[in-house]
Design goal:
It contains five helices and five strands; from the N terminus they run E-H-E-H-E-H-E-H-E-H. It is α/β, with parallel strands linked by helices. A five-stranded parallel beta sheet has the order 3-2-1-4-5, with helices on both faces. It is globular, with a radius of gyration of 16 Å.
């Protein structure tokens, strides 16, 4: 009988980028870093670079992106958590969908029904649920 090769049980961590490192963003980043097995906070972006640097130091030196769209497009980022100011949510969510990256967006997803519909339409066009 042929020997069955052992399959490694090591699964690479999901690299999450966090946009917005204020109160909620920092909490999300620290919860991901400290409490979610199989996840690494790999990137952070905030208009306040000092605040992003502080959160990065608490998350084993996550890469700081001065441009959130660069964080979204970076191949090293698997998924994105959006906790920036409300009016930015739609554009960042649409950018994530364009990259086919899962995105968790703080409430509200959009500031109008029309904007929410744009995100829904983009998600449907992507062919799978990516927005939570």
């Amino acid at each position: 009988m042929a020997e069955i090769a052992k399959v490694s049980s090591t699964v690479p961590p999901v690299a999450v980028g966090v946009i917005g490192t204020g109160g909620m963003g920092r909490r999300h980043a620290l919860n991901l870093h400290n409490k979610v097995k199989g996840v690494v906070v790999a990137g952070l972006s905030d208009v306040d670079e000092a605040r992003a640097a502080q959160v990065a130091s608490e998350c084993n030196g996550a890469t700081i992106f001065t441009d959130p769209y660069e964080l979204i497009a970076d191949e090293r980022i698997d998924a994105v958590l959006i906790s920036s100011p409300d009016p930015t949510h739609v554009d960042y969510a649409l950018a994530c969908l364009a990259q086919h990256k899962p995105v968790l967006c703080e409430k509200p997803l959009a500031t109008s029904p029309e904007e929410a519909q744009r995100v829904l339409d983009a998600e449907i066009a992507a062919g799978r649920q990516l927005v939570a």
